[in-house]
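Section 5: illustrative case.
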């Protein structure tokens, strides 16, 4: 399908930080996607926690399967809207590269440890991975991705960090957080696809784990509406297949809602190109009704799953491991590989090292340095 005028056109990309000759058979964004898939940080996502720790079960989402689901949903929405699917896929596959081991617990603990040294933000860390930390090319650090992919990866950024980025790269990816403008439609779409993906798969994983029940979910309008529909159409359906069918309907309703609502917003606003999109209000969105139902589901998951005593217990242990790892490396940098131990900015090097760890590796390192075995990783 042809790109819409407001899509990000790879032929008109703002380019890479280090100039490279174009390749004959792939667009700039396809090339970005391919570089991300081949990166070390991407492979590590398979052993990083989304909500449930990696060792708690083989069927729960990991950061890797989550990212693939975001890419799938994003592409489904991008195509009918005439957006660039390759850019959507690249951003989706890279959006969580900067996540620490142990999910949000790890990120919160590392941010605490880094408090005196400029803090730790996982979105900024994702950008750091693709800009600096990957070591694959002879001429430059990082993956040297296009501006548009980097713009999408940096979903949020504090004002202080945006100023730092702007000083290093004037008019670059930090700028929009100072100007309060929007990113491309493809980036906006990945944001929403992320939310659709985790709401749905956390319902699935939550049910599978037994931490939430179908009965509880009947109080959530987005779930309950489709549950009634499925029970009416398939009165004998039960168990996992019933849950899957409800989740499937929930997912497609949200995808269609975003396509219809965003399509209308684009017709109303009629941005003439991708830069007009950046100057406009956010255009990728749910209808007001779906926004309300999605927010209610999110609230339900927050109260009943992410704050479940069993999840909170592992969260506490995970935070302790990250804090103790950080303290151990700060006291004895030689416990890290030389490439990290020799950096001028030691706290940042420790944060990079810990953020890059898989759950398993962090658990083993923690045991090696402290003699304690907190989680059966
Ligand atoms: Mg995500």
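Designed sequence:
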């Amino acid at each position: 399908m042809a790109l819409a005028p407001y899509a990000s056109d790879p032929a008109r990309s703002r380019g890479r930080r280090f100039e490279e000759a174009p390749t004959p058979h792939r667009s700039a964004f396809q090339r970005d996607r391919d570089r991300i898939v081949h990166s070390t940080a991407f492979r590590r996502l398979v052993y990083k926690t989304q909500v449930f720790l990696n060792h708690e079960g083989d069927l729960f989402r990991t950061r890797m399967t989550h990212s693939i689901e975001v890419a799938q949903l994003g592409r489904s929405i991008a195509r009918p809207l005439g957006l660039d699917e390759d850019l959507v896929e690249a951003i989706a596959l890279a959006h969580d590269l900067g996540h620490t081991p142990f999910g949000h617990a790890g990120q919160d603990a590392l941010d605490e440890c880094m408090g005196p040294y400029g803090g730790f933000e996982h979105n900024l860390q994702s950008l750091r991975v693709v800009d600096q930390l990957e070591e694959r090319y002879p001429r430059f650090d990082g993956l040297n991705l296009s501006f548009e992919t980097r713009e999408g990866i940096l979903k949020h950024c504090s004002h202080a960090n945006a100023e730092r980025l702007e000083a290093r790269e004037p008019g670059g990816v930090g700028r929009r957080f100072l100007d309060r403008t929007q990113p491309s439609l493809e980036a906006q779409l990945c944001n929403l696809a992320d939310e659709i993906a985790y709401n749905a798969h956390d319902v699935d994983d939550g049910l599978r784990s037994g931490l939430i029940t179908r009965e509880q979910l009947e109080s959530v309008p987005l779930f309950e509406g489709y549950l009634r529909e499925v029970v009416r159409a398939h009165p004998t359906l039960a168990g996992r297949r019933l849950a899957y069918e409800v989740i499937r309907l929930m997912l497609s309703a949200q995808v269609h809602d975003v396509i219809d609502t965003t399509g209308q917003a684009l017709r109303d606003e009629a941005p003439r190109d991708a830069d007009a999109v950046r100057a406009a209000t956010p255009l990728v969105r749910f209808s007001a009704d779906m926004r309300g139902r999605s927010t209610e589901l999110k609230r339900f998951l927050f109260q009943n799953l992410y704050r479940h005593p069993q999840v909170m217990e592992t969260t506490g242990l995970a935070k302790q491991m990250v804090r103790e790892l950080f303290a151990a490396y700060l006291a004895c940098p030689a416990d890290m590989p030389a490439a990290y131990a020799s950096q001028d900015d030691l706290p940042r090097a420790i944060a990079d090292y810990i953020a890059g760890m898989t759950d398993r590796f962090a658990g083993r390192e923690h045991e090696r340095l402290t003699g304690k075995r907190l989680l059966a990783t």
